[in-house]
Amino acid sequence: MSLKIWIDGKLLDKEHATVSVFDHGLLYGDGVFEGIRAYNGRIFECKAHLRRLSDSAKSIRLDMTYSTEQIEEGMLTAMKANNLIDCYFRVVITRGPGDLGIDPRKSKQPVTIIIADQVGVYPKEMYEKGISIISSSYVRQHPNACSPRIKSLNYLNNILGKIEANDAGVHDAIMYNHEGNISEMTAANVFFVRDGIIATPTTSCGILEGVTRNAIFQIAAKLGVPLIEKRLQRADMYIADEMFVTGTGAEVMPVTTADHRVIGSGTCGPVTKKLMDAFHGHVREG
Ligand code: PMP
């Protein structure tokens, strides 16, 4: 059976789910998106994701055709149509078809797409041994350029970081902001543990405010583990006892080497493990 894709209220077979070559999402990366997961038929932090989607749309002056409630309904429809209970959603809103100039006023009708597909899970071994990362030489885009808080269809800044990681033969790359402070990984937020205290870059450091990041704040509070937001530099990474990253896809993933240096003990540390276990419980509880 072909995967069913929801586009503007209609369910279409994957082969027929297409957009115009004049769509400004394609021509200019003019649009916004979300990556969301469902566990056992329940959408994890749906409201928070859709709030971020509408914030992203508002930031780029894109009027959404559908309310967040209608998008949530569309997600459930797409999930059911594909007989999925554990799934990954990609919700995309493009500026829609226009002409070849950049003026968004020419695009009269945004296009809303919901893809519900199987989740591409990472190997279990990665969660035990941790991943290797490097420091990217690309500066995370300036908050006053196109803010990293906007989850826009233009991910080239992040993709360049990812290419650097690929070339270096490691899993991913950490990006620094224009002031040299750590911002985030190419598609995940970053955390460090030192002396039992968790630290993560503040939202003003040029990050996407991750939904998983916010869940970790709640979990850490519940477990009584102190967590602070601060400005962090490369040196903080090298002396950390533990390092991990969070995201909808990766969930909580330990990082055990950075710039070819071993971080902490070189395996998943106890605080990271505690958070990973608590996160798994948290997502299953809904
Ligand atoms: N930063 C970036 C740049 C991302 O693309 C993502 C993935 N959406 C994250 C952080 C993590 O966000 P979330 O936990 O909401 O998936």
Please give a structural write-up.
The protein is α+β, with helices and mostly antiparallel strands. The chain has 2 domains: 4-117, Aminotransferase class 4, branched-chain amino acid transferase, N-terminal domain (D-amino Acid Aminotransferase, Chain A, domain 1, 2-Layer Sandwich); 124-285, D-amino Acid Aminotransferase, subunit A, domain 2 (D-amino Acid Aminotransferase, Chain A, domain 2, Alpha-Beta Barrel), CATH 3.20.10. The chain is 30% helix and 29% strand. The chain has 8 helices and 15 strands. The longest helix is centred in the C-terminal third of the chain and has 16 residues, at 270-285. The radius of gyration is 19 Å and the shape is globular. It starts with a strand and ends with a helix.
Brief synopsis:
With 286 residues, this protein is α+β, with helices and mostly antiparallel strands. 30% of the residues lie in helices and 29% in strands. It is built from eight helices and 15 strands.
